[in-house]
Amino acid sequence: MTPPLCAQDYAELARSRLDPAVWAWLESGGADERTAQANLAAWPALRLRSRVLRPMAGAHTRVTLGGQTLAHPILIAPTAWHGLVHADAETATALAAAATRTPYVLSAQSGTPIEALAALPEPPLLWFQLYAQARREDTLALATRALRAGARALRAGARALVLTVDAPVNGVRNAEQRSGFRVPDTIRSVHLDGLSPPAARPAPPGGSPLFDSGLLDAAPDWDDVAWLRDQLPAGTPLWLKGILDPEDAHLALAHGIDGLIVSNHGGRCLDTLPSTCEALPAVAQAVAGRIPLLVDGGIRRGTDILKALALGARGVLIGRPVLHALAAGGAPALAHLIQVLRGELEVAMALTGCRTLADVDARVLY
After folding, report:
1. For residues 340, 344, 349 and 355, what is the CA-based torsion angle, rounded to 10 degrees?
2. Which end of the chain is least crowded, N or C, by CB within 10 Å?
3. 268 a known binding residue?
């Protein structure tokens, strides 16, 4: 069998190896999955502009993000329960991230504690995803734990916090529901141990299944963002993940947010949202370079990465492809996938005449 050569090869290999219910959990989008499909279709629909005879000596993919110089503009997105696809779970992801110098945004719903990853002999650059908890003190405790992780090993904990704001409730994922997927008892979200879940109550007869349940009573709002910003140690980078609207981008700027991730949660929440490719330009215009932008959703090729940078992002996050590669071959496969994407980006840069990422702007689009 031909070894995997691109992200799609890893997806096909993962599907052949995973339990169908796990595959449905991994791949399903919200409702009719139109947004999930749009994420995948929008990047290839953009055309690139070929430039020739441009000087390329000293070309590189380095980018500065949050005061840190990264080898390339690819980050690993926060996704839950890597143990569902590989026995080494998030440890395998961390090993691949370290080997490829790829920042890893660890999910709050990971099955491996951040302390274990920070204590690896060669830990990756770790960021940590936060979900606002029902009690503010639990949100702060989770953030503090992430920032302090690895202190005993004389290593830094999370270098940035990423508050996910686009999923106060789960989306309607019919494909996952039809599969009968259930998280096995052997896997749990270890960072949420001991925290208080939202207090749910039965809806009255004929009442609203969501609005009368109490599940939204503690849903976060901008006041909670302001409170968290004030509680964090000075200089802690706080990002918001799940921004699609320029008005929300303006509000984030007003609340002192350090960076935004343009995301529609992989199309897993509200269906018929625009693709992230479509939403990115308006958010970039609203931010106007005052804070950095990242984008996720449907990134499968190096050309997708180049287009994202041309539309105003400083980097991209990959989510499902990470789990595809883990399912196919653990840490070595994931490290290979990241290198493939980076190599594809370099080819795209060379053929559009971009010596560095600073050269990439809207002019590379046809």
Report:
1. 20
2. N
3. yes
pLDDT in tens, 227-252: 999 999 999 999 999 999 999 999 99
List the Cα angle 280/128/116 in 5-degree steps: 145
Three-class secondary structure of residue 74 per DSSP: strand
Q: Quick one: what percent of the chain has pLDDT higher than 70?
A: 98
Q: Which residue has the tokens 């779970």?
A: 89
Is residue 80 marked as binding? yes
SS3 (DSSP) at 65? strand
Contact 312, 334 (CB under 8 A): no
Residue 82: active-site member = no
State yes or no: 301 annotated in a binding site.
no
Q: Of residues 191, 265, 324, 336, which has the active-site annotation?
A: 265
Task: Answer whether 232's CB lies under 8 Å from 260's CB.
Answer: no
User: Hunting for tokens 């609340």 — which residue is that?
Assistant: 255
Residue 167: is it exposed, middle or buried by C-beta count within 10 angstroms (0-12/13-18/19+)?
middle
